[in-house]
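Self-study notes.
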Amino acid sequence: MNRDHEREVIASVLAGDRQAYAALVDAHKAAVFNLAYRMTGNASDAEDLAQETFIRAYNKLWRFDPERRFFTWLYTIALNLCRNHLKQSKQSLSRDTAWRENRDGEDAERREADQPEGVLLEHEEHRRLQAALLELPADTREALILRFQDDRPFEDIAEICGISLSSAKMRVYRGLEKLRDIMDRDGPASGSFVTEQ
C-alpha cells in the first residue's frame, strides 16, 4: 500500500468508515507479527501483541500525523508493546522458551523424519538464529530485526527506536557483532543476520 493510499484509508477511518481500517491491518499484519515474534520468540505472544498493536493504533489514529509514514508510527506502537511485554515477563520468558523449544523439538523430530536434508538444515539455522536473538538485549534485538528482517533503512530505525541516526547505526553494527559471537559459540552460522556486512 503506497503512502497516498494509506492517507486516504486513514481519512476514511477518521470520517467514520470503521471497515476501511481492515485495509491497514491487512497491509501490515505480517510485518507486525514478525516483529513481535522475533522480539518474544513466542507465536502466541506475538499474535496477542500484534492484535493489541492494531487496537491501540485504531484508538489513537486521530493522533497520527499524516506527514509521517504510517508504517513507522505503527511499528513504534508495536515495539513499545513488545518492550513492555518483555519487561513484565523477563524471568518467565527464558523458562517458557526453553520448555517450548524442548516440546517443539520433540514434535519437530517426528515431522522432520520425512524432510529433505536442506530443509532440515534451514530449519535448524532458523532456530539457532531465534535463540541467539533472544540472548541479546531487547534494544539491540529490535534494531537488528528492523534492519535485517524488515529491511528498514537506518533513518526508520532511528525514528522507530527514538534514537539518533548515528546511534541507530552503532546499535545495529554492535548488535551484529554480538549476534555473530553468540552464533559462533556453537559453530559457524549461515543466517542472513550474521552474514550481512
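Second protein, same conventions, sequence then structure:
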Amino acid sequence: MNTPAAAPVSFREALKFWFWLGCVSFGGPAGQIALMHEELVVRKRWISENRYLHALQYCMLLPGPEAQQLATYTGWLMHSTRGGIAAGALFVLPSLLLLIVLAWAYTAWGQHPWGQAILWGLKPAVTALVIQAVHRIGMRTLKARWLWWVAGLSLLGMIWDAPFPLIVAAAAFTGWHMQKQHTLPAAAPSHGSAKTTVAADGPAWLDDHSPAPAHTLYSHARMIQTGAIGVALWVVTLGALAWLLGGHHTLTRMGGFFTQAALLTFGGAYAVLPFVTHAAVTQYGWVTAAQMMDGLALGETTPGPLIMIVAFVGFLGGHSQAITGYPLLGGIIAACVVTWFTFLPSFLFILAGGPLVESTRQMPSLQGPLQAITAAVIGVMVQLAGVFARQTWLPGGWHMLPDFWAFVLTGLAAWLLIKQQRSIYQVLGLCVVTGLVVQALR
C-alpha cells in the first residue's frame, strides 16, 4: 500500500520551525546543513531529497553563507516570498542579538585578566577549527591531482594578494574544462551533510513530482521586478547613509564594503574571513588582528552562520569610534548596518533566482566548477589558518619567542577535533578551562 505524502505545512508552523532552527543551529555550515536535512527531508518530510540537494548545489555556487541561503530557499519554496524572508531572517536574528551582547561584554571585560585568560584559551581552538575545516573539506574534495593543483595555486594566489574573484573565476573555468574532458572524480556529499538516504515514511510534501507551486514558475518579468526591488533597497539604504552622514563616514564605508564582501566571496565563512580580515584590520582599522580572532572565537559559540562575525566587526568599529557619540549605541547600530548589507544580496539571489533554478532541476550538473571552486577555497583556508596560527603562537610578532603552550594547545585541539571526533563545544570548553588554569598558575 502506498504511503500518503506528508501533509501541507502552514506558514505559522513553518515560522516556529525557522525560529527554532535559528536558535539551535550551532556547528557551522556543515552542521547546519546536516540539521536541516535531518529535519526537512527525513523527519518532517517537507521537501524531497533531490529537491534539497538541487537547492544546496545552487546555494553553494552563490557568494555568501550557503546554510542561510538554503534556509531562505526552502522557506521560499514552501511559502513564496514571505516564507523565504522569514526563514532567512530567523536564521540570522538570534545570532545577531547574541553577538551584540557578547561584543558588548568583550569591550567591557575583554581586557580583564580572566577575560584575557578565556580568550587565550579560545584562540588555539579557533586555529584548530580552521585546520579541521581544511582537513574535512580536503579529504572530501581533493580526489584528483588537478584539484590539488587548484588548491595549491589558490594558496599562492592568496599569498601574492591576487584578487579573490579572479581565483574563483579561474577555478570555475578549470572545473568546467575538466568536466568537458570527463575527468571528474566521484562527487562526495556536499559539506559532508546531506545524507543519501530517503525518508522511509513515504513521499514528501514537496516531492520530486509534486505539481510546481505558482510562485516557483519562472517568469522573466518577475525576476527583473524582484531584482529591481532588491537593488532599490540597497540603493536607498546606502544612499541614505551617504546623504545623512557623508560618503566617508564609518557606517557608509561599512555598507559599501560588506556589500562587496557579500558579492565577491565564495565558499562559506572561512573563505570570506581572509578578505574581511584584511580590510577590517589593515584597510579600515575597525578591529585589530587579535580582536578578529577573538570575534571568531565568540562567533563559534553562537548559533547561526559563522559569517555573523561581521556583526562583531561592525560593533567594535562603531563602538571604538563612538559614531553616534555613545559607544554602545554606535556599536549596536553598526552591527545592524553590517548585517543588513551582508545578507541583503543573499535574499536577492534566492528570491529573484529561485524560479530560474527550479526550472533547471533536470539540467546537467555543475559538478566540475563546484569541485574546482571548493578546491580553491581549501587553498584560501590554508592561508587563513596561517594567519590565525601566527596570531596564536607569535602574539608579540616574529621577533618574540613563540608561545609554546598555545602551540601545544592548538595541536591538542586539532587532534581532538580531527582524530577523536570530539564536538566543537567540548574542545572550546577544554580550551577555556586550560586558559583559566594557566592564568591561575601564572
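Instructor comment on the second fold: Residues 114-186+217-441 form one domain.
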